[in-house]
């Protein structure tokens, strides 16, 4: 009976305190494509990706019903950082779908403006609002509708709190007339959140270097994990020894609440309830992590998994030093990466796998039509046949008494050739060890693709080379030689293709730069650089997120400046979020079904070179 009464009371209070409109809710997933295009079209940083922002506590005054119901403690506000434009995952604060959708549009336009360091939140949002209304006057009616709807919902502080009243009055005035208030009055409580403005104090996550170290140390553990779409705020706490720290002399039943962080080890069993842990994590604003012996053991296991020198591939050269682009400094850092050419040590001669026979035969027949037909070259000094037209002219001139030479009395039948060279660069990172379906891994799909690609191009006579790459930080970047331009496609090349295996990480910028240096030496009128990848650039050090993407983008730009044609083929389902920034809207293609890559890759080459 008590549980029933409590359930009814909770339902009653929750409904009475409801200040949201879930029936008119608009999600970021619904408008993601539109807001991304709008942000970039208005001049926003094209390198930023749109992500969902997690809710943060605001500590502002709440109404009595909200305090009884225990809700309205958090708010989802927009902000941007070096890598992401973060927008609320759901907007349902207005009673109509159109207003909620308009709020997404307004926040995107507001975030385009320049973010100044150390500028107060109150002044920054007013400045950005004034700039938007000045540059885009047509958006003023939308802004006025949002302000009117929001002001009608704002909670008015009690009359006995003059400081909070002055603060609320300043915010209302700033919303109605942006730029009219210079400073926000101080009060004992922070003001109620303003969803029309950017976050007053965006959460700052722990440093990316610490994140990378943690991932590196845990990558060899092989444990299960649940992944959340929402980015979480984290801090790192040094793990300290707790033994011998004394005795707790307080009675635990006297402690009504516990709000601090307690450094306790929690064993992770294999049958741990990860679903419950994920639910608990969703309710936490700040996730504290620490390093312990388990993390070090995971890192040790990762290092021990590396192949021994006797079992590793053959090193062909001590390495080439290449620069890397630092997008923060906006400059190339010289000699930062070392690319080491390697060759499979245990690759013998091999035949084409039997399951590819039929497809390879069909592709070879199709690609033979791309091969230029043979034609006669006249006026040759030597050849397979006498050029009758040239001989008749020579004989007639001689009978007529004109001086004539017998140069060029032959003709020669030659096979035509397309002045085209292609270098295929395959991503052989650790992620290729994942399974596409019950029958094949990504690396198996890439291997079949290289086989069919080589079979097809050998039928056209086009010059082509194949390389693979992976990396472990900036030194070394492993550059696997599979086929050079001056090598014929034969059993030895098929053996190298058969020997490819998953490597480590994806330092794509260095691999593209080295491929560019190889391809630009080939004397062809048209030179195509095809990159075959299954994910975005990343590595163990700072080469992830925005840094890796911007370095790859700069490497692609350098390749185009050398007259090459970079083109990316990927099986990453999320590639549309970052590849347009790297290769342009027409410089890439996403293969939706990875199992279709072996057949689609040669056909795609045919379209690019026809």
UniProtKB/TrEMBL annotation:
The lineage of its organism: Bacteria, Pseudomonadati, Pseudomonadota, Gammaproteobacteria, Chromatiales. It comes from Candidatus Thiodiazotropha endoloripes. This is Nitric oxide reductase. It comes from the Bacteria. InterPro entries: NorD/CobT (IPR051928), VWF_A (IPR002035), vWFA_dom_sf (IPR036465). SUPFAM superfamilies: vWA-like. Pfam families: VWA (PF00092). Residues 183-243 are annotated as: Disordered. Residues 419-608 form the VWFA domain. Residues 226-243 have a biased composition (Basic and acidic residues). PANTHER family: NORD PROTEIN (PTHR41248:SF1).
């Amino acid at each position: 009976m008590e549980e029933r009464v409590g359930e009814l009371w909770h339902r009653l209070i929750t409904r009475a305190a409801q200040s949201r409109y879930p029936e008119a809710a608009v999600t970021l997933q619904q408008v993601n494509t539109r807001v991304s295009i709008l942000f970039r079209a208005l001049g926003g940083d094209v390198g930023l990706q749109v992500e969902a922002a997690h809710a943060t506590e605001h500590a502002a005054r709440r109404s009595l019903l909200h305090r009884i119901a225990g809700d309205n403690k958090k708010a989802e506000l927009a902000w941007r950082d070096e890598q992401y434009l973060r927008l609320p995952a759901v907007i349902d604060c207005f009673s109509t779908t159109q207003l909620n959708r308009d709020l997404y549009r307004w926040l995107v336009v507001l975030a385009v403006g320049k973010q100044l360091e150390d500028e107060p939140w109150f002044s920054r949002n007013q400045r950005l609002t004034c700039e938007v209304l000045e540059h885009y006057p047509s958006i003023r009616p939308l802004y006025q509708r949002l302000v009117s709807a929001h002001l009608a919902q704002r909670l008015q502080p009690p009359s006995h709190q003059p400081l909070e009243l002055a603060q609320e009055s300043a915010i209302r005035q700033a919303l109605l007339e942006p730029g009219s208030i210079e400073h926000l009055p101080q009060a004992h409580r922070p003001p109620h959140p303003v969803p029309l403005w950017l976050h007053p104090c965006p959460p700052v996550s722990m440093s990316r270097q610490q994140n990378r170290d943690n991932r590196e140390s845990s990558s060899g553990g092989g444990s299960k994990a649940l992944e959340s779409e929402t980015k979480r705020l984290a801090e790192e706490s040094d793990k300290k020894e707790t033994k011998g720290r004394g005795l707790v002399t307080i009675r635990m039943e006297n402690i009504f609440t516990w709000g601090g962080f307690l450094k306790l080890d929690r064993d992770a069993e294999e049958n741990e309830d990860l679903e419950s842990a994920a639910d608990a994590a969703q309710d936490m604003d700040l996730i504290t992590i620490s390093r312990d012996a388990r993390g070090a053991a995971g890192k040790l296991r990762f290092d021990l998994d590396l192949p021994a020198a006797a079992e590793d591939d053959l090193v062909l050269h001590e390495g080439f030093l290449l620069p890397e682009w630092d997008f923060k400094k906006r400059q190339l850092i010289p000699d930062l990466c070392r690319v080491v050419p390697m060759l499979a040590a245990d690759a013998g001669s091999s035949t084409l796998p039997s399951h590819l026979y039929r497809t390879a035969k069909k592709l070879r027949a199709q690609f033979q039509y791309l091969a230029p037909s043979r034609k006669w070259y006249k006026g040759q000094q030597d050849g397979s046949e006498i050029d009758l037209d040239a001989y008749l002219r020579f004989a007639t001139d001689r009978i007529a008494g004109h001086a004539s030479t017998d140069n060029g009395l032959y003709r020669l039948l030659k096979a035509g050739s397309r002045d085209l060279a292609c270098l295929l660069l395959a991503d052989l990172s650790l992620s290729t060890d994942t399974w596409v379906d019950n029958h094949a891994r990504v690396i198996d799909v890439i291997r079949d693709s290289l086989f069919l690609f080589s079979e097809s191009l050998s039928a056209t006579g086009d010059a082509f080379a194949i390389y693979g790459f992976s990396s472990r930080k900036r030194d070394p970047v492993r550059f696997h030689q599979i086929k050079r331009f001056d090598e014929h496609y034969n059993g030895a090349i098929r053996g190298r293709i058969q020997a490819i295996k998953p490597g480590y990480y994806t330092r794509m910028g260095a691999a593209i730069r080295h491929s560019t240096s190889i391809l630009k030496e080939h004397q062809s009128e048209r030179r195509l650089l095809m990159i075959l990848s299954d994910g975005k650039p990343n590595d163990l050090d700072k080469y992830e997120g925005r840094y890796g993407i911007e370095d790859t983008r700069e490497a692609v730009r350098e390749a185009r400046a050398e007259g090459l044609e970079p083109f990316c083929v990927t099986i990453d389902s999320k590639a549309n979020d970052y590849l347009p920034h790297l290769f342009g809207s027409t410089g890439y293609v996403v293969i939706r079904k990875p199992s279709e890559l072996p057949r689609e890759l040669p056909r795609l080459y045919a379209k690019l070179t026809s």
